[in-house]
Amino acid sequence: MTLNKFSTLKRPIHEIPEFVLVALKNENLLEDFHARPPYQQNDYIGWIIRAKLEKTKMKRLSQMLEELRQGDEYMGMAHKSKKRKN
Fold it and tell me: Which of 17, 24, 68, 71 could pair with 81 as two cysteines, CB 3.0-4.6 Å apart?
């Protein structure tokens, strides 16, 4: 799965790996992920896939999922998200 093909990012755009997509779906966070700006989506994916150790990838994935769940953080920094409709 790719990020928004109309993105204006100037850096390489990362494909969403299957294990990340599965985790987002399993945690019901795919909509929250896509609600983030394209640069944040891309940064999260790049950060996760650059990890050399599988343990580190999973730790980063867990952090991303938690930040999406909470909605007020982006890679350890404050983030003002749009409220999710339930």
Answer: 71
